[in-house]
Design a protein that fits this description.
By secondary structure, the protein is α/β, with parallel strands linked by helices. Helix content is about 40%, strand content about 15%. It has 14 helices and 14 strands. The structure holds FE3-S4 cluster (F3S). FE3-S4 cluster binds near residues 296 and 372.
């Protein structure tokens, strides 16, 4: 890789050991992917925040890097942590877990990172422009940034996103390049998509088939940003899709690069007649529901409004969490108060997958999110019911799935 003078001096340790380590990581990545140079990135979003996933080894790795004097040089936010940082006791999380989690956050803060812990940074003040290069690492945020915003990021790991934040650059390869953003899988959607869970079921089905392909969807008549975040999150969970295009909707949706308007190469085509496989695969047959979790990816203002309307005047029987960013939670003061008057909990900074849910005694979770439904059995040891928002709210009120 060709390095500028500044990059060479960073690599030589002239800006300290923390910066040197960052450039070493990025250089190794650049060599693996055959990048010719580094390019500047305007923001970073760092995964590897929940102590549940990091464990003591991850915590020590971060504290060690922070102790080397590393500081970020671009706006950088964090992925969800394992606790609501300001109000973790309300979820029943143990002191021991919370103290370790707080040490993780302190390590990041000492590197100059804002402790805004969310997988929807684009709804919480970190909204790049189309074409802007960023280094994000949470898979649903990566998918949204590339596909819905038209910004450019590879699917970074936690350490490489942190390295990019500290060095202010990333190797130029993959989704930073025009030629690697072309669709190579055509998806013909022949069924109606009427809910967030329909988009999640579709994402689950396509992700399983697509791996890390770049799908181009035809036949999706309309999709708001909440639907697209659900679609992308599910595809990034059951597969490794980091970019997709939706004809007539997402900013780079055009059929390949050829002047004929056809996909440039003969792509594989998937035809989706119905969503049965998604709903069947993501559902257990459990009837009693003790946790209902909405907000994967973190809920938007619009979603909080819908939930508060559905809960208006109702009391819930089972535990109901609505997970969101702190910024959205603060902006939705009235909705939050209405939701919580039903007995539900609006929770910031964390989510149903990265919080230590398995230690809280829950057996079956209901959700309208394809991604959460996909991960809950393996990451949280939970049975799952997956359905519409209305079904989930009804389960919270009755304690039963119907
Ligand atoms: Fe976000 Fe947690 Fe879902 S990090 S995308 S709410 S699994």
């Amino acid at each position: 890789m060709e390095l500028t003078k500044e990059e060479q001096s960073m690599l030589d340790g002239e800006e300290g050991e923390g910066v040197q380590k960052a450039v070493e990581i990025l250089l190794a990545l650049g060599k693996i992917y055959d990048a010719g140079r580094f390019i500047p990135v305007s923001s970073a979003q760092v995964a590897g925040v929940s102590y549940k996933n990091l464990g003591d080894a991850g915590l020590e790795f971060l504290e060690d890097w922070a102790n080397k004097g590393a500081k970020v040089r671009i706006p950088t936010t964090l992925n969800p942590a394992g606790i609501d940082i300001e109000n973790w006791k309300k979820l029943g999380i143990s002191d021991e877990f919370a103290q370790k989690q707080i040490r993780v956050i302190e390590a990041y803060k000492s590197m100059g990172i804002q402790p805004s812990c969310t997988c929807t940074p684009y709804l919480a003040g970190n909204l790049p422009k189309q074409g802007e290069h960023v280094a994000w690492s949470e898979s649903s945020a990566v998918s949204y940034a590339n596909s819905v915003i038209g910004a450019r990021t590879n699917r970074e790991g936690g350490p490489s996103a942190l390295a990019a934040a500290i060095a202010g650059r990333t190797p130029e390869y993959g989704l930073h390049l025009d030629e690697d953003r072309e669709p190579n899988l055509l998806v013909e959607v022949k069924c109606e998509l009427n809910s967030i869970s329909d988009f999640g079921a579709l994402g689950y089905i396509i992700g399983k088939e697509a791996g890390n392909s770049i799908p181009y969807f035809k036949g999706i008549k309309q999709a708001d940003s909440d639907s697209l975040k659900s679609l992308g999150a599910a595809m990034a969970a059951s597969g490794a899709v980091a970019l997709y295009h939706v004809e007539g909707i997402t900013p780079e949706a055009k059929l390949g690069t050829t002047s004929t308007g056809e996909l440039g190469t003969t792509p594989e085509t998937l035809t989706i007649e119905n969503l049965d496989d998604g709903y069947k695969s993501l559902n257990s047959d459990a009837q009693d529901i003790d946790l209902i979790a909405i907000g994967c990816p973190h809920a938007s203002l619009n979603e909080l409004k819908k939930i508060s309307n559905l809960l208006d005047g109702k009391k819930i029987k089972s535990e109901l969490w609505i997970t969101t960013s702190r910024k959205i939670m603060l902006a939705a003061g009235n909705e939050v108060a209405k939701i919580e008057s039903s007995g539900a909990k609006v929770v910031a900074d964390t989510c149903m997958i990265v919080a230590p849910v398995e230690e809280l005694g829950f057996k079956t979770m209901a959700t309208n999110a394809g991604k959460a439904a996909f991960y809950a059995p393996s990451h949280c040891n939970l049975n799952v019911r997956f359905g519409t928002l209305e079904q989930c709210i009804n389960a919270a009120i009755t304690g039963k799935w119907s």
